[in-house]
């Protein structure tokens, strides 16, 4: 199939932009089979300009020391004094964007990201590139037709310009609806789904679960509720209905309502409900596992583009949220440009250095998700060594109780495997013979098979404009990550200090495998089998399909106390 090029829109100008400044990114070369349409001058475009951090190598070393418990986390003042760009630097970028016609300009609290809304004409004026509406296989979005450049006068402060290559750098939700809910799933009893007594013989082993089941299944019900904790959830779009859907769900199960604080760090489009179900799943899953919170802080990005999500994560880091759950990811980390990886890395260094833990999904497309290199892959940013990478399992209860754990296998949709460009972090050195030279994902799994998933309340507007709600069952890695984040908040409530805990997690796992850690021989639920097509579970040890397995929260809380 030949190259398809349709010049259906009026270009910004017929002249090739002059790149007399500093080039930050090459143009996207059109390949056979691509579809590219030159964007019109007035087409809306949003950019995220990332500023340069000072003393990056030193900050990376500090982050490593914090997660190895060799030093205390940094304060905001520590970061600002030595590592972050100044407000004057951010003002220079703000003025540059404003002078080129951008509006709705947001500067992050740490001065790391300046977000601006504009048009294709504004992009050409500021960054000297035309833009395509672009499709390559399953990837669709926009692409820069010319090199992206900035003035020489700003080369000392600007690190990258994102938002001009969204076709390749777009995250997607990891939420999957249960196939059975499209047929004849029945509730366990009257009232809310899943509220039937667990006494006697249950109807299934691979069961759809009520939220009241999960804390007991994962050993968290004997821990105190996380009433003094705040969990940050990263979402997308207009969240005006999320509170209502969450309250409807919580009241049906008799849960105390956790305050939900919705923040739009870089604006949003009213009526954009594309990710409403993902938002409800995340909030419900966090509430399920925590047993209570001071609040859920929901940071909503204006799109699923990974640079927009980075701006939302940055806002949560700036607000010192010790626990962050992220359920959007690119399917193939191998397709992500190094400039975007670098932008994520420097923000995640700051998060780790402050003692903040980010839980991020691997994604839901199995061992071979259709990446450009036709190899197995994992999701991004779940491939980063500075997040806890979360895959998904199929959870089985016992024959006599919906809320009693029996075993888990790997959910076939769970992505896993080595990162494309991230080398093996030191905390994986103990499993180097298994993972090889690259960062292996996931670190852990939790339930994510939609057919053993969670009942939630979803909603939407019908053709008459009336808002309708319904019960549905959802899973995916988007269930697994907030379940784990909520469990972690409960560990913090039990007295575990907020650190980025990878080294301890891996030490505990090694002790359990070798039976050398008497306080933590049941901390993890090693999976009993399963495969995603590329990797298979090896029972009783760390493996590239399921990492260390899932958490037995009560035992893990005790074990982590001994690791301090």
Word description of this protein:
The chain has 564 residues and is an alpha/beta fold. Helices cover 26% and strands 26% of the residues. α7 (276-290) packs parallel to α11, α8 packs parallel to α9 and α11 (477-493) packs across α13. It is globular, with a radius of gyration of 23 Å. The termini are far apart. The model is unreliable at 1-19 and 181-190 (pLDDT under 50).
Derived from helix and strand composition plus strand pairing, the structural class reads alpha/beta
Through-space gap between termini:
60 Å
Radius of gyration: 23 Å
Tell me, briefly, the overall form: globular
The strand count comes to 27
Instruction: Estimate the helix proportion, in percent.
Output: 25-40%
Beta strand %: 25-35%
Largest sheet: 8 strands, mixed
Q: On the 0-100 scale, what is the average pLDDT?
A: 90
Contiguous uncertain segments of 5+ residues: 1-19, 181-190
- Tally the helices: 13
A few lines on this structure:
The protein has 564 residues and is α/β, with parallel strands linked by helices.
Ordered list of secondary-structure elements with their pairings:
Elements: E1 4-5, E2 22-25, E3 35-38, E4 44-51, H1 56-67, H2 76-82, H3 87-99, E5 103-107, E6 113-119, H4 120-127, E7 131-136, E8 139-144, E9 148-150, E10 158-162, E11 172-173, E12 176-177, H5 214-217, E13 226-236, H6 242-253, E14 260-263, H7 276-290, E15 293-301, H8 306-318, E16 323-326, E17 328-329, H9 338-353, E18 357-361, E19 388-398, E20 401-410, E21 417-423, H10 432-435, E22 438-441, E23 444-447, E24 454-461, E25 467-475, H11 477-493, H12 502-514, E26 524-525, E27 550-551, H13 553-562
Parallel strand pairs: 1-3, 13-15, 13-16, 14-15, 16-18, 18-19, 19-23
Antiparallel strand pairs: 2-9, 3-7, 4-6, 4-10, 5-6, 7-8, 11-17, 12-25, 19-20, 21-22, 24-25, 26-27
Organism: Dyella acidisoli
Protein name: Sedolisin
Keywords: Calcium, Hydrolase, Metal-binding, Protease, Serine protease, Zymogen
């Amino acid at each position: 199939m030949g190259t398809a090029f349709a010049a259906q829109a009026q270009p910004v100008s017929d002249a090739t932009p002059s790149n007399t400044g500093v080039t930050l990114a090459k143009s996207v070369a059109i390949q056979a089979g691509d579809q590219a349409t030159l964007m019109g001058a007035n087409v809306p475009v949003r950019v995220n300009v990332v500023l340069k951090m000072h003393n990056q190598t030193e900050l990376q070393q500090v982050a490593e020391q914090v997660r190895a418990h060799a030093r205390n986390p940094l304060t905001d003042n520590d970061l600002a004094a030595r590592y972050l760009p100044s407000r004057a630097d951010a003002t220079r970028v703000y003025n540059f964007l404003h002078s080129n016609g951008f509006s709705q300009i947001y500067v992050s609290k740490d001065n790391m990201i300046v977000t601006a809304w504009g048009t294709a004409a504004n992009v050409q004026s500021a960054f000297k590139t035309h833009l395509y509406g672009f499709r390559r296989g399953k990837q669709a979005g926009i692409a820069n037709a010319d090199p992206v450049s900035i003035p020489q006068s700003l080369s000392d402060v600007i690190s990258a310009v994102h938002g001009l290559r969204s076709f390749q750098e777009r995250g997607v939700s990891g939420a999957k609806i249960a196939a059975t809910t499209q047929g004849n799933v029945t509730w366990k009893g009257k009232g809310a789904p899943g509220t039937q007594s667990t006494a006697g013989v249950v109807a299934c082993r691979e069961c759809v679960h009520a939220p009241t089941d999960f804390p007991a299944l994962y050993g968290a019900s004997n821990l105190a509720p996380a009433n003094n904790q705040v969990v940050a959830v990263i979402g997308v779009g207009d969240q005006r209905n999320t509170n209502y859907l969450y309250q409807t769900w919580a009241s049906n199960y008799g849960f105390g309502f956790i305050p939900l604080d919705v923040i739009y760090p870089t604006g949003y489009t009213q009526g954009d409900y594309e990710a409403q179900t993902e938002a409800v799943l995340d909030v419900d899953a966090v509430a399920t596992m925590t047993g209570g919170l001071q609040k859920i802080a929901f940071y909503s990005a204006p799109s699923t583009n990974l640079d927009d999500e980075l701006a939302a994560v940055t806002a949560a880091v700036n607000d010192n949220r010790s626990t962050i759950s992220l359920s959007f990811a690119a399917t193939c980390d191998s397709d992500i440009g190094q400039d975007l990886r670098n932008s994520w890395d420097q923000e995640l260094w700051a998060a780790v250095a402050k003692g903040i833990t980010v839980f991020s999904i691997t994604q839901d497309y199995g061992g071979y998700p259709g990446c450009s290199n036709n190899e197995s892959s994992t999701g991004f940013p779940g491939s980063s060594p500075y997040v806890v990478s979360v895959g998904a399992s199929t959870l089985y209860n016992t024959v006599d109780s919906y809320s009693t754990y029996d075993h888990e296998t790997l959910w076939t949709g769970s992505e896993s495997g080595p990162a494309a460009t991230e080398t093996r972090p030191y905390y994986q050195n103990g499993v180097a013979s298994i993972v090889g030279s690259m960062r292996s994902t996931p670190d852990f799994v939790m339930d994510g098979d939609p057919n053993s998933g969670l009942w939630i309340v979803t909603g939407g507007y019908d053709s008459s404009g009336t808002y309708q709600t319904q019960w549905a069952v959802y899973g995916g890695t988007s269930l697994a990550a907030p379940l784990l984040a909520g469990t972690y908040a409960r560990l913090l409530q039990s007295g575990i200090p907020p650190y980025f805990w990878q080294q301890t997690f891996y030490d505990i796992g090694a002790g359990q495998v070798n039976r050398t850690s008497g306080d933590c021989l049941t901390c993890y639920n090693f999976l009993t089998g399963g495969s995603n097509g590329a990797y298979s579970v090896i029972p009783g040890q760390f493996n590239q399909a399921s990492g260390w397995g899932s958490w037995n929260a009560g035992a893990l809380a005790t074990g982590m106390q001994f690791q301090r």
